[in-house]
Amino acid sequence: MAHAQLSPRNIPDRLQGRGARLLKSWEALLVVVAAAIFLGNSLASPYFLDPWNLSDATFNFTEKAMIAFAMALVIISGEIDLSVASIIALASTAMGYAVQLGLDTPALVAIGLGVGLVCGAVNGLLITGLGLPSIVVTIGTMSLFRGLSFIVLGDQAFTGYPESFAWFGQGYVWWVFSFEFTLFVLLAVVYGVLLHKTNFGRAVYAIGNNQTAALFSGVRVARVKFALFLMTGLMAGLASICLTSRLGSTRPSIALGWELEVVTMVVLGGVSILGGSGTIPGIVLAALIMGMVTFGFGLLNVPGIVMSIFIGLLLISVIALPILWQRARRRLSQ
Amino acid sequence: MLQDTTTSRMKPAIALEGISKSFPGVRALSEVSLTLYPGSVTALIGENGAGKSTLVKILTGIYQPDSGVIRVGEAETAFPTALSAARAGVTAIHQETVLFDELSVAENIFLGHAPRNRLGLIDWKKLNADAAALLLRAGADFDPTIRLRDLGIARKHLVAIARALSVDARVVIMDEPTAALSHKEIHELYALIERLKADGKAILFISHKFDEIFRIADRYTVFRDGTMVGEGVIADVRHDDLVRMMVGRSVDSVYPKKEVGIGEPVLTVSGYRHPTEFEDISFQLRRGEILGFYGLVGAGRSEFMQSLIGITRPSAGAIRLDGEVLVIRSPAEAIRAGIVYVPEERGRQGAIIGMPIFQNVTLPSLSHTSRTGFLRLANEFALAREYTSRLDLRAASLDQDVGTLSGGNQQKVVIAKWLATKPKVIILDEPTKGIDIGSKAAVHAFMSELAAQGLSVIMVSSEIPEIMGMSDRVIVMREGRIAGRFERSELTAEKLVRAAAGIEAQPEGRAA
Amino acid sequence: MTAKLLKNREILLVMAIMVLLAVIALRFPGFVAPANLARVYNDTSILIILALGQMAVILTRCIDLSMAANLALCGMVAAMLNTAFPGLPIPLVIVAVMALGGLLGMANGTLVWKIDIPPIVVTLGTLTIYRGLIFLLTDGKWINAHEMSDAFKALPRQDLAGVPVLSWLSLVMIAVMFVVMGRTPLGRAFYAVGGNPHAAVYTGIDVGRTRFFAYCLSGALAGLSGYLWVSRYAVAYVDIAAGFELDIIAACVIGGISIAGGIGSVAGAVLGALFLGVIKNALPVINISPFAQMAISGTVIIIAVAVNVRAERRKGRVILKKAEAA
User: Fold this and answer.
1) Exposed, middle or buried by CB within 10 Å (0-12, 13-18, 19+), for C83?
2) What's phi and psi for C284, nearest 5 deg?
3) Homologous superfamily (CATH) for B7-252
4) Contact yes or no for C306 and A320 at CB 8 A
5) Which chains, if any, share at least 3 CB pairs under 8 A with chain C?
6) Percentage with pLDDT > 70 across chain C
């Protein structure tokens, strides 16, 4: 093949316009699903479209979504953090203990966030410092953190949270918009910018696609990953404040099983469990979908555990369908 | 070396006729033919990118040819799977043997066809005994119950050969088998090959070391740019004939070296050492110079380079760049200092597959295109555009996934990435490995261009023509240490080979 | 020689368990009386059986987070069978739920093999589906001891030559897995697939199918454990064995089974389970609240994986000749 080149080749930046790229994305599929569920819910129950009911519905997902944003980044980078629910428990236990000592709301908030950060740091050190696989480490810390809560509380509960503390989980910022929902929107924006518009976010994608090449390219892999685990810890702490405030009490079994729901939300949101791809808008849509499903089923008086069957099926189908679709397309084109 | 006059009357063990294979953008093989005879060694010769590894993959059933015929014995056949090729008696021994480190040697030999007892369970006693016998036939005498992981590469080769014997292979493909072997081990391998020949196996021996080829091969086949350009009996050719067939044009045009004024030392490395990988590495690199690093695979060159840029920690050593003392603890620091490394393993260490071309190009330079920490796509596209056009990249758009590009174009993206950081020193580790001739020449032209612009280039290469064609000076490494330093004017292929392999000078005139 | 022995994971575990027992015996010599040790073994039998199943799956570079849910569903079905047909011989019930468990495992295996969904996603999904199915089957109702037939409850406790049937079953399973892993092509394929899936293809091993069989095996063992659990504790409800999947994975990790696949042994899985079993049974004796068990498990997992990774880490490329001897 002749190689002579007289003028510089002009390679276009992009072939597809923004609109085309958006339409073909996973997020577009989620919008369709979300719209379908919204429609289904409105038709199934007359209570669904009431603004205050919808506002109540948001409590089904806001706390999990906060963690899901941070978890999404962790999974995109190729790791996982299964200890998030246990961090909620430990942070809540610490706050409850502080209440028994007579500390007031600002201190409680500081403690909740602080414990979250420390737990995140523990995870981060074990994973980036010692190079241990995140799945096993966080299974370990999952037991350890919640185990510590059990040691402190046994089968008792902490109550007696100050009144001002209740605002986080039960208060409203304006009209129907609760503090939690507002926080959710804010965090969606913050994480959206962080992941999609900053150098840090680019580094996260690079690490998830090819950690070795990212390292060779000057990305500070260990630092980035450590920061990611700190963030999930912090978000778990924040979620713990909201949840504890909403429930008004702390038991060691608080948020039991939530880590799986958060992972489900992340994967449903289009983040590949293998790392390297996914978006924040996808997580937002997944959170809305899961929230609506939970709320809708709740209105129909379906027990939570049956709902989780639906979520489990949703998770598997959502991953399976694109694969099956691709195979069918390939077979048709042959 | 055997006189081989009988093969033309023998029935071939396996024959490939008119084989073609294309990949997107690259025609890897065009109508090639290859015939292997039992009890005979055929050398397959060609530069990187000539199509050798594609052919091996077709022989072992990993790729399917687009057209052409495969004959085993007389019958026309096909290898739709790796397993079918294995069943037909084709086995391959690669540089990195494809076996199971955590299983025992004996199990590696018999995996998939272990002897069973009457209950259908694996008969370990027989397995170990049979394995020991096969190892003896392969010229090895170590315990077959040890874990494969505990063996060195030479012995792993022997295990692979024992496996080939266990499946009664009729065709044994050896792909650069001596790359990581010591002098003594190489001679043991030659003896083994003689034994395999006596056993009636047909051997395909892929190598770029002419002394080996002339020592062990009976026949030869030369590939160039995906076509077969010559074949015959080794006894009938000389070195130069083979080189001419391989390269097909004068060395100069493939290795376009500009005359560049070489300046003052820019990089001084003293006493670099690592506990297990290398020691006593000291040299200087001058402005505008191309310094070649030659050596066998496993000599420690890449390991040293990676230590230089901060991937691994040296146990001792100092660097001065432009007079300033540098301490490099991470690739980020190396990049900031102006020393960049284009890695050997493009897919694993160089290109981030899954990300678009422009993002690959801008990754080390994000702190420049996006000073505030917030991405500025316009700047990124501009940077990517500039450097990809300088390297004449062929792609549909800069937004395209870098994984969809051909090997040569991926390499251009990787090099563009590093040039975009405006380095002072650029280290290229096997820069043209596995890419087509066209892109190869482009990379070389570009290297010269860089040197002319005042960059300093270190080129790690295992290809003699490339080293000799492009370097101003050559440093040869062997077993982790520097084994020779040569100026361009005194370079000969023989000196390089001797220094790299640590062999004594041979008497002249043994080539034919 | 000693150094090599010390590096052997199984020997280390045996020593660790010995040390643990010795420390406990200092305060409570009664703990290490043979009768008590037998009791501890009996108590750990279910975990051993489950760890054997999980081991097969992890060896192939997969994971099965749905084992506890599988166990719970099969246990409930066993109890339901028993309350509906009290005359049904218990061995038949066992076979039935093992088959059910195998089917549930097959579902996992099929999704991993045929549709190529990552194992963690598959088993995360099936874990909630299987648990939810229990609710659907029973509408949340429990099956209590008085509803189960005597034969149903008695079988694991039955004494055969001084050893309860429960212990016998786990011993039999250990022996079976020993043979499967060590003497059958399928067992060796587990190791090959996890060790080097690309190379495994060349030797004629179907990677997906091997993983499928690993899941069938773990499912069947979960089914068996389901019967054993509900009969031993004489109760069946939606939440039994909640969180137990962590213990199972912990046992494997402690036993030296690498999460990266290809490394691990039957002895390791058994010893890992025993290690956890000893701790669990010792806690009440040394007066540590049973609530501490979770935290201790967690710590042990972290230490175990750190040890695992250090052992697996290669020496690093050795190029200098003099470094080779080191």
Assistant:
1) middle
2) -65, -35
3) P-loop containing nucleotide triphosphate hydrolases (3.40.50.300)
4) no
5) A, B
6) 94
